[in-house]
Design goal:
This protein has eleven helices and nine strands. The chain is of the alpha/beta class. It has a nine-stranded mixed β-sheet, sandwiched between helices.
């Protein structure tokens, strides 16, 4: 059985990992903001892992990675404010500041201990922002093909008034566009299946999806934090698919050089969504990084 907040098209999922993760979805209100928040939680263990998805995505993005991590650690995948299946009606805003406040509310409501925070693509920007604002909540940081070096939205986005904002968001839902982006995200384009496309679009049926996407874009999205990377204190793993066609692989070196206590690991045969292409390899890298005490991590290491 699938949760009632998931759309009827969820029944069309066929991949076992997709079906299993969708069935384990939950949505509960946070304690302070009271926002019903979509999440998946599996596993047990200390120093929980928290996974943050990319732009216009959801926790289902981690359908192949999360179960592997949960074998060793309690693992959360959180739907960020304005995205996934987190309720939009109760949201006071959808810009990065509100995303950070909501994520802190999630941490206070359900977790309450320093986490290993993993952000992929735009989720990397959310993870960086959260770490800079709430360093006491983050034991270690992992960036996977992350944004954060350039502004997230063009200046013209602030002029997207109705109905232009609606149609700009609607364009993002166009199946041919989503399929094209999906294919570019993989090295092996055959992995961009109909099931993968459905996984990536289920959340676009949620009430308020157009509004939240438009508001986030008009707020400017995530800007560059390049000048603040030296303030990142937790040990940081930069895990990068070397054949990324969405973001410039050179960004990995910039993050590595700027973040003081960082380690760069290249995945040669992966693109932008390495956690979907090589979940076993990615899980192994994350769990290995998680096992070592923070004070034992080497500084300035590059692997791969």
């Amino acid at each position: 059985m699938f949760p009632e907040f998931l759309p009827a098209t969820t029944t069309q999922l066929v991949d076992t990992s997709s079906v299993t993760l969708a069935q384990s979805y939950r949505r509960e209100p946070t304690k302070t903001l009271g926002i019903p928040t979509g999440f998946v939680r599996q596993g047990e263990g200390r120093a929980p892992i928290v996974l943050l998805h990319g732009f216009d995505s959801s926790a289902i993005e981690f359908r192949r990675l999360l179960p592997l991590l949960a074998r060793e650690r309690k693992t959360w995948a959180i739907d960020l404010l304005g995205f996934g299946f987190t309720n939009r009606d109760r949201a006071p805003g959808f810009g990065p500041n509100w995303i950070c406040r909501h994520l802190h509310d999630v941490w206070q409501s359900w977790i309450g201990t320093p986490v290993i925070l993993v952000g992929t693509s735009m989720g990397g920007s959310a993870a960086l922002d959260f770490t800079l604002n709430h360093p006491e909540c983050v034991e270690k940081l992992i960036l996977m093909n992350s944004t954060g070096l350039v502004s997230g939205a063009p200046a013209i986005a602030r002029w997207l008034f109705p109905p232009l904002d609606y149609w700009a968001a609607e364009f993002l839902r166009w199946p041919k566009l989503r399929q094209s982006v999906s294919e570019r995200s993989y090295v092996d384009e055959s992995l961009a299946t109909e099931d993968a496309l459905l996984c990536g679009s289920l959340h676009t049926t949620q009430p308020g999806w157009h509004r939240s996407i438009g508001a986030f874009t008009k707020a400017g999205g995530y800007g560059s934090v390049r000048d603040r990377l030296s303030d990142i204190r937790p040990p940081t793993l930069i895990l990068w698919g070397k054949r990324d066609r969405i973001l410039n692989p050179e960004d990995a070196n910039i993050f590595h050089q700027a973040i003081p206590n960082s380690q760069l690991t290249w995945l040669d045969d992966c693109g932008h969504v390495r956690h979907l292409e090589r979940p076993e390899t990615v899980a192994g890298c994350i769990l290995e990084f998680a096992r070592y005490p923070s004070e034992n991590h080497a500084v300035g290491v590059e692997k791969g």
